[in-house]
Design brief:
It is built from nine helices and four strands; from the N terminus they run ααβααβαααβαβα. It is of the alpha+beta class and 217 residues long. The protein has one domain: NADH Oxidase (3-Layer(aba) Sandwich), CATH 3.40.109. Strands 1-2-4-3 form a four-stranded antiparallel β-sheet, sandwiched between helices. The chain binds flavin mononucleotide (FMN). Flavin mononucleotide binds next to strand 3.
Length: 217
């Protein structure tokens, strides 16, 4: 059983995290802290364990400048964040084979019970019968590492901003033209700025618990 102090410490981390709009460009995240944040991303769970993601850490200043033109919601992060991450998503079926064979170390067979279950889940349970539906479903998985990374960062005293403010088609094309992604394998899902705040934290507004939680007895 945890103590009240331990519980409060956890809640304080959630109060501390906010979508940082102004980062101090002079403050850099230490490598040890960054490794902890990305490890939290890597260890994140995913549906069926297929990890449909890849993380790009953008350090190149020219690429950051270019991204500002097509990522309106990322300008603050691109200007001052210590680390700028693009989370890619894949719906490419060879990725599933790679996960099963090379990561889970199990023989891949399209007729295995696991494969059949996955197929039925996609086609019947979740109606993932178009590339767009599949993309959105796989993108949902990428928000789990996104969230874990933000929470671990907050725990380490590091600020962050999740980013959906970009033109997806333009960012995909940009990264493909630069040879950074193979557009047949990966697309951009969401982005994340990480660094240190250079502003007062605004008041946190949230719905009260009794509006968002209903107990069904
Ligand atoms: C998925 C997602 C996408 C977001 N995209 C952006 C963005 O592009 N740019 C930005 O400045 N803030 C972005 N935000 C921040 C939200 O506006 C912010 O989290 C929300 O208003 C709640 O405030 P708080 O995080 O400061 O508590 C995004 C948040 C989430 C969860």
């Amino acid at each position: 059983m945890s103590t009240q102090e331990e519980r409060q410490r956890i809640i304080d981390v959630f109060h501390r995290r906010y979508a940082t709009k102004k980062f101090d460009p002079t403050k850099k995240i230490s490598d040890a802290d960054w490794q902890t944040i990305i490890e939290a991303g890597r260890l994140s769970p995913s549906s069926f364990g297929y990890e449909p993601w890849k993380f790009l850490l953008i350090e190149n200043p020219e690429i950051k400048e270019d991204l500002k033109k097509i990522c309106w919601g990322a300008i603050n992060s691109l200007n001052g964040a210590s680390h700028f991450v693009i989370i890619l998503v894949t719906i490419n079926s060879p990725h599933v084979k790679h996960m099963v064979e090379d990561v889970m170390d199990v023989d891949f067979d399209v007729h295995s019970p696991r494969s059949e279950k996955f197929k039925s889940f996609q086609e019947n349970d979740f109606d993932l019968n178009s590339d767009r539906a599949l993309f959105d479903w796989a993108s949902k998985q990428t928000y789990i590492p996104l969230t874990n990374m933000m929470t671990v960062a907050a725990e380490l005293g590091i600020d962050s901003c999740p980013i959906e403010g970009f033109n997806r088609a333009k960012v995909d094309k940009y990264l493909a033209d630069k040879g950074i992604i193979d557009p047949n394998k990966f697309g951009v899902s969401v982005m994340l700025g990480l660094g240190y705040r250079d502003q007062e934290q605004p008041k946190k507004t949230r719905q009260p618990l009794d509006e968002v939680l209903e107990v069904i007895k």
